[in-house]
Design goal:
single chain; 331 residues; alpha/beta; twelve-stranded mixed β-sheet; disordered N terminus
Length: 331
């Protein structure tokens, strides 16, 4: 279903829209009409909100027409995409790693339409009219694992994720690797609740790991993060937590530890500008230092802060190599 563009009163959205405009290339075949399909609500102050920010930036910097549909289940995504195409959209952006098979089906069916998808990295054999934004979450989550390893007092760490996507599996394995290196005594309790945007299920998972003495929780859900945070607030002991996509310090200042921040504005702007120049498909990689940054670290010692920042900078400079394992969860 096509929705009108709505304004969200979120400070980080206003900030993201102040970036410099990128000029369209020469020889664009037609005015672009970009439609984005999002799995959750754009008012989640999280993954879907930053996707919507990137969409608005396309309108403001590249002059493209935009549309979007939010809270689209995977089962409905193909139908929604076809409706956008029938209505005149010639670029369809799937904001989320769960839409790969749909892109693989629609690409050959609509050779005159460009598709943008997100995944854990390069994928061989994509249709020639597909742009793939590879999200190297695991490199950033390794740093959050270091933070957890150096901060826990109970040596029990919780990890709450939603859908078992390859890049989320890689992130979990990266956290495990960080614990092995920086605190071998630490135990990691992880759960995939099956939904990125269900606060009730996420809270139940958080309460379960807290009951098993976790005092640090790494959050990898979107709207579900609010459930985890409420569980931490209600815990009988202090439980620190981290988030990603956006900084959520104001939700619980005394327990927030850090956030892995993602900015999709630059990737989408560069990809769409290249489509305007006539480039049909390609690959763009997001990683620490390129669309990913580490927010302010709070509620831990200065020594821990400095060590974590050093590790993050090593990852940015590629001087610290982290193995990417997407097909299984390490023991």
């Amino acid at each position: 279903m096509r929705h009108p563009v709505r304004v969200i009163a979120l400070l980080f959205i206003l900030t993201a829209l102040t970036g410099a405009a990128a000029l369209p290339g020469q020889g664009a075949p037609a005015k672009l009409r970009v439609a984005m399909i999002l799995p959750g609500t754009i008012q989640d102050a999280d993954f879907n909100a930053v996707g919507y920010v990137a969409l608005l930036a396309l309108k403001n910097t590249l002059g493209v027409e935009i549309a979007y549909s939010e809270q689209v289940a995977v089962a409905d995504a193909e139908r929604v995409a076809r409706e956008f195409i029938a209505a005149g959209s010639n670029v369809i952006a799937f904001h989320g790693g769960q839409f790969l098979t749909i892109v693989q089906k629609l690409g050959p069916a609509f050779p005159n339409v460009n598709f943008i998808m997100e995944s854990s990295g390069r994928i061989e054999g994509l249709p020639p009219n597909v742009w793939n934004i590879g999200r190297k979450f695991y490199q950033g989550f390794y740093t959050l694992g270091v933070l957890a390893a150096l901060s826990t007092q109970t040596n029990v760490i919780g990890y709450i994720s939603g859908v078992r996507l390859p890049d989320f599996v890689a992130s979990l394995n990266a956290v495990k690797a960080a614990l092995r290196e920086f605190n071998p005594r630490a135990q990691l309790l992880y759960t995939f609740v099956g939904d990125q945007n269900d606060p009730v299920r996420a809270r139940q998972a958080a309460e379960s790991v807290i009951a098993r003495h976790a005092d640090f929780i790494i959050i990898q859900v979107n709207l579900g993060a609010f459930g985890v945070i409420e569980a931490a607030k209600a815990a009988p002991r202090k439980v620190l937590w981290t988030t990603f996509y956006t900084d959520k310090y104001t939700l619980d200042p005394s327990r927030f530890a850090a956030s892995l921040l993602l900015d999709f504005t630059k990737p989408y702007r560069e990809v769409v500008a290249r489509i305007q120049r006539g480039e049909r498909g390609g690959y763009y990689e997001m990683r620490p230092g390129a669309g990913m940054s580490l927010g302010v670290i709070r509620n831990v010692s200065n020594e821990t802060k400095l060590r974590v920042l050093q590790v993050f900078n090593d990852v940015v400079r590629n001087t610290r190599q982290i193995e990417e394992i997407t097909d299984r969860i390490l023991e």
